[in-house]
């Protein structure tokens, strides 16, 4: 196949992947909509049992010995009455109506369809990135369009890996929304025909620098989305303790404590990669391309700001014991700083990185 053919195939695969991700997003949106409509109606004893389990879980978490900010949480979630039906809530489960059972089946079906469509979108997405690289005869991240499709692929990869390990399919709506939006923006506003790299980008440090930045960016996105859902779940759990109810959609999420631990694991995985990208590979590449390791270019400054925010997040968890809402807030701030570094700096600020988009 000729480079022109590869470019044509890539230009077909990327929009196709965008549509499939959008369908996955719709499926996950239906899952959440069904969950909000099907608020679990429990008997008073069952609601009291749920509150008692939440209180017991919180007391256990506060008294347990916690190491490295992860504590005793697991990636999948604890068996609280919020995530799964416990023995204390068994009497409530026995009184669940047939309509609620049917609603749960629809929720499960929407979740499975959404995950299946995400895998399909990922296959087309991967094919589009690979054929773009073959069309250009190089790694496919030499401009803003290419970095967008590659970075969004990294988001999908991180999500699908953690889905297998930590059962994160409940994160599908946020992930597919982000990936479909980035691909749509790239196709409509950022598209650049495949071509050779500018001289400054001819270095194997480009491969190391951008691949590490894209992978860590995928982790920051997943961790940020988990932190957003953590705040929603924690708020719902507090309402249950006060005698309120929780929507079925939120009830299907792991416990807030577990989500906090999972976000920490994702961000602890991503931070060393970002450190390598912006403090090791990036400066070495800058020395090769521009004759200096660090020049306080806007991109370099905001990459450093992103590093500082996530370093503060990990430091606060390890030394001050910050968990829960405070840690989630820092993680969300870090994610928005990263997004501004990825989009805002490239599109709004002129600098030495502007031509590359990375």
UniProtKB/TrEMBL annotation:
TM segment ranges = 12-34, 113-135, 147-163, 170-192, 204-232, 266-288, 300-316, 328-349
Q: Which UniProt keywords apply?
A: Cytochrome c-type biogenesis, Membrane, Transmembrane, Transmembrane helix
Q: Does the keyword Transmembrane helix apply?
A: yes
Q: Which residues form the Cytochrome c assembly protein domain?
A: 141-353
Q: Report how it sits in the membrane.
A: Multi-pass membrane protein
Q: Where in the cell is it found?
A: Membrane
Q: Matching InterPro entries, A to Z?
A: Cyt_c_assembly (IPR002541), Cyt_c_biogenesis_CcsA (IPR017562), Cyt_c_biogenesis_CcsA/CcmC (IPR045062)
Please tell me whether the keyword Membrane is annotated for this protein.
Answer: yes
What is the recorded name of this protein? C-type cytochrome biogenesis protein CcsB
């Amino acid at each position: 196949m000729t480079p022109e053919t590869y470019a044509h195939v890539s230009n077909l695969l990327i929009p196709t992947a965008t549509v499939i991700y959008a369908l996955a997003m719709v499926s996950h949106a239906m899952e959440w909509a069904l969950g909000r409509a099907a608020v679990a109606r429990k008997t008073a004893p069952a609601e009291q049992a749920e509150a008692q389990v939440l209180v017991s879980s919180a007391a256990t978490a506060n008294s347990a010995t916690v190491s490295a900010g992860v504590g005793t949480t697991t990636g999948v979630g604890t068996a609280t009455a919020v995530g799964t039906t416990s023995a204390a809530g068994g009497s409530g489960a026995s009184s669940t109506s047939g309509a609620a059972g049917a609603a749960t089946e629809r929720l499960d079906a929407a979740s499975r369809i959404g995950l299946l469509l995400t895998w399909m979108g990922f296959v087309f997405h991967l094919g589009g990135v690979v054929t773009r690289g073959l069309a250009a005869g190089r790694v496919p991240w030499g401009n803003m369009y290419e970095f967008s499709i590659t970075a969004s692929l990294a988001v999908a990869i991180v999500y699908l890996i953690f889905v297998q390990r930590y059962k994160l399919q409940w994160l599908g709506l946020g992930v597919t929304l982000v990936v479909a939006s980035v691909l749509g923006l790239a196709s409509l506003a950022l598209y650049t025909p495949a071509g050779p790299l500018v001289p400054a980008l001819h270095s194997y440090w480009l491969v190391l620098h951008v691949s590490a930045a894209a992978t860590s960016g995928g982790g920051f996105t997943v961790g940020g989305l988990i932190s957003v859902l953590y705040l929603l779940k924690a708020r719902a759990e507090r309402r249950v303790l006060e005698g309120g109810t929780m929507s079925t959609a939120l009830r299907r999420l792991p416990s807030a404590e577990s989500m906090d631990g999972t976000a920490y694991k994702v961000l602890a995985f991503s931070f060393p990669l970002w450190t390598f990208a912006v403090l090791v590979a990036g400066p070495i590449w800058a020395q090769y391309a521009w004759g200096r390791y660090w020049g306080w270019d806007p991109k370099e400054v905001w990459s450093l700001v992103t590093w500082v925010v996530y370093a503060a997040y990990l430091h606060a968890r390890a030394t001050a014991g910050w968990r829960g809402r405070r840690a989630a807030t820092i993680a969300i701030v870090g994610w928005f700083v990263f997004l501004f570094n990825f989009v805002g700096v490239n599109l709004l600020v002129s600098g030495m990185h502007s031509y590359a988009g990375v």
